[in-house]
Amino acid sequence: MELFTVTNVTRGSDRLWVHFSCLCFISFYVVYLLHKEYNEITRRRIEHLKYHCKRPDQYTILVRGIPTCPDHGTYGCYVDHFFSKHYQTYQSYQIVHDIGNIEALQKLAYSIDKQIKRKRETRKCNIWQWIWFKFTSEAINIQRQERKLKDVLLAIRLLQCENTLKQKEVPVAFVTFKSRLDAVHAAEMQLLGNPLSLVTTYAPEPKDMIWKNLAIPFWRMAMYKLGVFVAAFLLTVFFTIPVTAVQGIVQFNKIKRWFPPARALQLIPGLNSVVTGYLPGMILNGFIYLVPFAMLGMASFEGCIANSQKEIKACNMVFYFLLGNVFFLSILSGSLLDQLGESFTHPKDIPSRLASAVSAQSDLFITYILTNGMSGFSLEVLQFGLLTWQFLKAHSLGHGKEPYLYGFPYYRVVPIVSLAILIGVVYAVVAPLLLPFLLIYFLLGYAVYINQMEDVYEFTYDTCGQYWPNIHHYIFLSVTLMQITMIGLFGLKSKPGASFATIPLLVFNILFNEYCKVRFLPTFHHRPVQVAKQSDELDEAEGTTGNLDGAISAYKPPWMRPTNLESGSVRPLTV
Amino acid sequence: MELFTVTNVTRGSDRLWVHFSCLCFISFYVVYLLHKEYNEITRRRIEHLKYHCKRPDQYTILVRGIPTCPDHGTYGCYVDHFFSKHYQTYQSYQIVHDIGNIEALQKLAYSIDKQIKRKRETRKCNIWQWIWFKFTSEAINIQRQERKLKDVLLAIRLLQCENTLKQKEVPVAFVTFKSRLDAVHAAEMQLLGNPLSLVTTYAPEPKDMIWKNLAIPFWRMAMYKLGVFVAAFLLTVFFTIPVTAVQGIVQFNKIKRWFPPARALQLIPGLNSVVTGYLPGMILNGFIYLVPFAMLGMASFEGCIANSQKEIKACNMVFYFLLGNVFFLSILSGSLLDQLGESFTHPKDIPSRLASAVSAQSDLFITYILTNGMSGFSLEVLQFGLLTWQFLKAHSLGHGKEPYLYGFPYYRVVPIVSLAILIGVVYAVVAPLLLPFLLIYFLLGYAVYINQMEDVYEFTYDTCGQYWPNIHHYIFLSVTLMQITMIGLFGLKSKPGASFATIPLLVFNILFNEYCKVRFLPTFHHRPVQVAKQSDELDEAEGTTGNLDGAISAYKPPWMRPTNLESGSVRPLTV
Fold this sequence. Notes:
- Chains A, B: It holds the Pfam family PHM7_cyt.
- Chains A, B: Keywords: Ion channel, Ion transport, Membrane, Transmembrane, Transmembrane helix, Transport.
- Chains A, B: Residues 58-213 form the CSC1/OSCA1-like cytosolic domain.
- Chains A, B: This is CSC1/OSCA1-like 7TM region domain-containing protein.
- Two copies of one chain form a homodimer.
- By secondary structure, chain A is mainly alpha-helical.
- Chain A has a domain at 218-350.
- Helices cover 69% and strands 5% of the residues of chain A.
- Chain A has 25 helices and four strands.
- Chain A has helices spanning 4-9, 16-51, 75-86, 100-125, 127-135, 138-160, 162-167, 180-188, 218-238, 240-249, 252-258, 264-267, 271-300, 307-331, 336-345, 350-360, 362-382, 384-396, 410-430, 434-456, 468-492, 496-519, 521-525, 529-542, 548-554; strands at residues 60-64, 90-97, 169-177, 199-202.
- Chain A has a four-stranded antiparallel β-sheet, sandwiched between helices.
- In chain A, helix 10 packs antiparallel against helix 13.
- Chain A is globular and about 80 Å long.
- Chain A starts with a helix and ends in a 21-residue tail after the last helix.
- The interface between A and B is large, with 37 and 37 residues.
């Protein structure tokens, strides 16, 4: 497994230069592939922006921190004055209101309506149920519920009426333009002298919006961000403590005492030792399985205005969690906290410590890829988590058997796959025997995820490739980690020449990353003027104004729409 | 001097809380002042942008990385097509050419012309000089020089003609708009899918331009930047080595041996010891005096397109140099390199080491402020450096007695004054007796610099307050350094409670800095849309188009203008 056991005997062997040339080849090839891929994805993003030019979010910007109009004292007035003065193709605006209460009321109305319907259907059904119905005086119950529903609907209508809405305005608005060029200009420029007033961003897709977060003011959002960062950091660093505690409590011997039927497992020969051996690992994996959901929950406290932003945040947090608690904790002994403390006090020793730890643990990662990778795929195919969640929801909260269609869980899949890439890159030179296992993992993963994406999940948002810069960064980190490990390893094997020769490689890698930040990243944050103009010209040639009417109505929050119980449209768009 | 010698006896004295409350008061007061000042300077910047709305740089943007037009194969054609299509108020463009040679030729023509004139004047002067003139056959010399001048002027005209210029085009152009709003939009947006092609920035003021750097392509500029960063870093870290070497060589005893007249100093009683004692210090100060010029020289290799950018770069480099080689080297013994190495291996000990070093060295900084500060002012008033430089130039290079008018040397003054602020802030709690000396220093400095600015120096550029964010950052660094020192000091004085209580103060300070970056900094990098529109409206109300014609001609490089020897206008604008 470890090629270095050979060279370990002859210290400072010249055969280490073979490893060095492998390192060079892999480094440059990864850089080449990364460049090619970033280029390709940038091209596709621009194509995609052009292709989806009729989408309402291309005409619409989100304005926050609106000052009040000095003449009329309202936010809407200021927006109207400002944009009609500065942009010729300004169309209209839609002020956002802070009435999260309506959403809850609409949900309540929706659930009462469902209950009434179910009970009515039961009444029609058969004689036994009819008797049961009479016996439990459900008729009175239905009447009571109908009265309640009427009250709720009245309350909703009262809240939705003009006068109440006026009082609940927040300094946030959607502004629609007739041309995409003006929307692009308005979204990316600093409009006023104070950069925190009249802050503009591109509006997310209507179905991607998290409406209730729009009302959060800036300073609270900054506080939330800081809080979430601290919480995610603490979770990552102190994760091992609760896990070890649970592992100490939940032992097979103790379970047998408290839950006697578990003794049945002992009857099957050999199973006892399997359970005793695997239980701590299963507990750890169970916790790790829950982490993406915990991170997503944390990210939703951050006050992101779009689900896609939230999931990208969660994706980043999960990746760094896995890097710390799966990769570093596996290769280094002890808790992550001790390791961090030691690294902080002796930063110069990091490469050599990393090297000695990495070269010792390649077997462990083959096991990791084989067990966790494969079990992850089977869980994904079986949809174990979602089915359990659905079962629990249906039988405890009484939501019935609605069809469930969720978006692809990028925040769970991307970090795990990125971790596999990281393991592959770090071990590519040290222990190449790991690579075939990774190849199987990726081939299987490709088959599984292509199927899942096409048949199981729903498209919930379209970020036009916003995930790629993050994945690029993970791969960049992998290559950096590989090079630092190799610097340490060549040092350990008494080859300081090779160790020093790796440093320019590391510098080149960092410079390449800086180049990518300048060459490709801006296109993922901005929309080029040329692309917007081309779409505008296409519309002009067609003699239409694109999907402009759609854009105006698309950014009406769901709670502003009438409560239509029959068609079931009360259910908010954001689930 | 040191208040802590009192509390040193009673370890962990409760009187340390007085120091802690002083620390709190100073921290919050500095934060309050910084906020007030940043707010004020932001307001002034916007006022200034409005006031100078007729300046040509408000209509003009600089475009770099222009692709060639697919139809005609020229850069100019592409610029014209692109901007006339995307911006309604596009006016004209001015392609930049890579003929730095012309500038040298024009300088040559200018100097030959001067020599001829001088000699002719000599001929008219008096009889002795006339005889000398005849005797040395200067007449033939003049004729030869006149012929040479003619050749040079012909060469310039040949280079300036259309056909030669066409071949020397570089993908850089100045683009002028009729409205400031479009100029602002075009300067700040990403225009094409590739963010490195058609890169736009605001054009610097014409008199601030460094024309010859316009032709430098991006990748070379990035290389230069990296090179300058490495060079400045090396100079800062290894500065002490050559200084110590020179100090070793130049000793008074050795000088006496090589230059016997120096023995005369020994005749004056007491002077011998003064010279022996002060010589090493004077050598160090002499080197430090030269550093700003060295840094400015380095910064000019970076390929900045404006003198103001170059000087801001130099200003930053000089500040960090002084922080390392005056502040840290004075308080810590040994060379900066050793200190960096030790800090790198034991980052946790930094606060306590800093604290023990800082509290021991307050006398030294009083001496520093009194001697270097005062001698700096006298040098500034006497203009010693410039006069020497002018003398050397006049007598060796033969440039004659031109009047010299330089711009205010911000890159030299700002870092030195910032260092004084840093010393004041760091010692404000530890050794408040230093403050009266600083007060004298600042009062004197105010008087000196106000006078110098009004009567001695010329205005060479106007950045609309671009220096402030840097000065703000230096003061922020001072406060951070003070707080880290106090954390260490409370720890050393067995007051861990006060030590931990300082950490929130440090966090608050960092958060305040982040807030400033969001609230104020963008206004220094962008120009608000509202301001540009207001200036446009003012012009419309006046029925003019501002100073638009001036804008078009202002960005003609000096070497494109006819060589007019009589009026002396050959001399390029950028000196």
